[in-house]
Amino acid sequence: MTRITRKELMHVAEIATSPRRRAPAPGGPTAALLTTAETSDQVAVLHVELPAGAAMPEHDHGASQIVLIPLAGSVELHHNGQARTLTAGTAAAHIARGERVSLTNPGDQPASLMVVASPPEFADRLASWPPA
Fold this sequence. Notes:
Blueprint: E1 20-22, E2 30-33, E3 44-50, E4 55-59, E5 65-72, E6 74-79, E7 82-87, E8 93-95, E9 101-104, E10 111-118, H1 121-124
Antiparallel strand pairs: 1-2, 2-3, 3-10, 4-9, 5-8, 5-10, 6-7, 6-9
């Protein structure tokens, strides 16, 4: 008989009830980790909310590649002196390992993003963020 481990089972996370943490930047985003090491050792999924007019300073994602998928609102992704607008339903972005980026929300409504990190090491940084 084959034994099924936790990582082989489907996992469903409720965004609204997942604990949120606040980035260590004034007015910065909040994030909820929707997967854990017990869920997957290959990928992490986060829900990020960036308030209207807020920004996330330049940063990298360590060993992780990142996919940003806007769910609501829009954000400006800044990289190498260029800005690209990502709007819900129209664009997504891939950020390679080591690339430094920043995010801003130029709108008057909060922006919501799904963030996928692989490998999941970037998500470990959230543990140092204070609860939101």
